[in-house]
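Tutorial, part two.
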Amino acid sequence: MTDKFYIKGGTPLKGEVKIGGAKNSVLKLMAAALLAKGQTKIHNVPDLTDVEIMLNVIAQLGAKTSYNKEEKSVTIDATDITNITAKYELVSKMRASFIVLGALVSRCKEAIVALPGGCAIGERRVDFHIRGLEALGAKIKIENGYVHAKAGRLVGTDIYLDIPSVGATENLMLAGVLAEGSTRIQNAAQEPEIVDLANFLNSMGADVNGAGTSEIIINGVKQENLHPIEYTTIPDRIEAGTFMTAIIATRGKGIIRNVFPAHLTFFTDKLLKMGANIKLIEPNSLEVSCKNRLSSINFITQPYPGFPTDLQSMAMTLLTTANGVGIITESLYENRFMQVPELRRMGADIHQDRNHAIIKGVKKLTGTTLAASDLRAGASLVVAALMAEGNSVIENLHHIDRGYENFESKLRLLGGKIERKDDTLPVNLTEDTHNESYL
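Running the prediction step on this input gives:
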């Protein structure tokens, strides 16, 4: 793949942007659709490579799948599950696909799922998933890179998670839906995507209570109690936060539509403390602007409702030109500062000490050639290039494509000078010239 972003920085972003469906939710809803026989339809599904991978994983299991790009909807007919193996070739590409383990064990009482892959942002073990399923009665062995799970019957029990793992919470929710009796997950993840999954399951006929709190109780139901549904995914809070950051970084003014502001409370509070202007103009719309140089802040990434690790790199980009010194502590993943070397190449003054980053604000960043190392780091480099002086080229777009639908098109609607081109073709980043030689 030779596509690259060519960006001319320094233009304030202005206008409106509509946020798509939440990637981190819709992937789990697609797996949950495997629980009910019949045809389930999910709306507000972004056109992403991660969605394509999950569709392929589900189709591999025997379900019939389709994606309607015009409707932004996915249809999954899980009447027949003919295969219980999710192969390495697909699961290794995206960690979220590991959630089919809970769905398969729940419905088929057996599953063979490859150990997951995804962005290289640090160790994300599956111990909590395995121990939880074993507590429910599954017999599990790991060999040749696959998790083999088998359960004659699943019986509800109390499960305590050492950390509030989102993936483990979701896998155990799916496993508990068809278990006998009640399953109680303590120290459960509280993310909005967990609530969305619970709402989806309950619409399907499951009995899930407490989602959004640290204790989730799943009262098991019979297979015949589950039925296919139509459901609309929540908006993507990380995409919303990214566009908020981009508008603020370029000292622009814009409206973010199709957003649930309550999902971004902690992040919004930090932006306000830095000096940004954020107003709720409609229940699902925010007006975001910034005129002056921001002030530095300190923050620690934490599980929801704390500062989201997925927006840490975006906030770091803002701090690179803020007044003063800011300190970021990354408490969740050990390799989540992969954007730091690239930001330094743009002139940022960042000192990294293990999971701490100390950012001393400089007057400006300057454009250069950059490489995306993972999804969120890649998005933060796009924001950095938009705020920088001069031209930038961003490589490795496959990382960004995993989580942002039509990223460059939405930025152009806001006036951003960004083009996606094969690096062998000429690029035009101005309104009054054509086929301009770039750099």
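Residues 280 and 286 are 5 Å apart (CA to CA). In part three we will examine how such features are distributed along the chain.
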